[in-house]
Amino acid sequence: xxxxxxxxxxxxxxxxxxxxxxxxxxxxxxxxxxxxxxxxxxxxxxxxxxxxxxxxxxxxxxxxxxxxxxxxxxxxxxxxxxxxxxxxxxxxxxxxxxxxxxxxxxxxxxxxxxxxxxxxxxxxxxxxxxxxxxxxxxxxxxxxxxxxxxxxxxxxxxxxxxxxxxxxxxxxxxxxxxxxxxxxxxxxxxxxxxxxxxxxxxxxxxxxxxxxxxxxxxxxxxxxxxxxxxxxxxxxxxxxxxxxxxxxxxxxxxxxxxxxxxxxxxxxxxxxxxxxxxxxxxxxxxxxxxxxxxxxxxxxxxxxxxxxxxxxxxxxxxxxxxx
Length: 323
Known about the structure:
This protein has 323 residues and is of the alpha/beta class. The protein has two domains: 3-12 and 196-311, no CATH class; 21-192, Rossmann fold (3-Layer(aba) Sandwich). It is built from 13 helices and seven strands. It has helices at 3-13, 21-36, 54-64, 91-100, 111-125, 147-159, 175-178, 181-185, 201-220, 229-240, 244-258, 268-276, 296-322, and strands spanning 43-47, 68-70, 73-75, 78-82, 129-133, 164-169, 191-192. The strands form two sheets. The chain has a five-stranded parallel sheet, sandwiched between helices.
């Protein structure tokens, strides 16, 4: 593997903790520990815009509780499941079985058989906590389950199987709790995983540190940024609205664009080209890498735009569900 290819892979695999990352990590760690110690199961929900780092959070939690073997049988105390779309009472258990790497009944198997197989395999694996990534797909328009029915399904995991549940998704996921009071009363307060705020000095510093970490990775492979670091930070924030996932995508694209060049130093124009080749999170009225000097008011507008887009998605989903 070339040095340039290795750089791109390193950028995509590097985990840069978010302002709320450690806070949510610590809180969920305590909930998981509580479940592993045999206490009553709980339901927790983490919501935030796409590309904010929710999947990274789930992956980090799973790594903290690795699977093992007992008498030759896999033990998976904490399981990450990718929520299927569209979800249904038969497809949800199948997704759990796939995550467990367990045999999956034939596609014509009944809903009851799927659920029984899932329950048996979870017990065998000693699973005490399930993290459902992209759980907001359950409340997408056109799904085969109503939010209330989906809430009842998760409530079964808690009550019948004694398994704690963590649901991670975009803000529309909250409608699951609003439509099922029994699940809501079994749940902790919703954890909000927001992008870095430019107005908050502490969060701004963390964003700067994340950007600096990527710059260091480029420098370690012989690439220099040929313009002011402040201009890079501000334009990267304008591009992302504070979403580290977008920053990662931008840096990975930049590494791809320069990999075949003999001189891999990076100009402002190189960054502008890379930014134009990815889907950004920023307002089109304030395009990133069009100027080196950017006013704070535009930085704050980019952050607000990301938050408003996320809320608009929630309102649109609710409206569609009523039709």
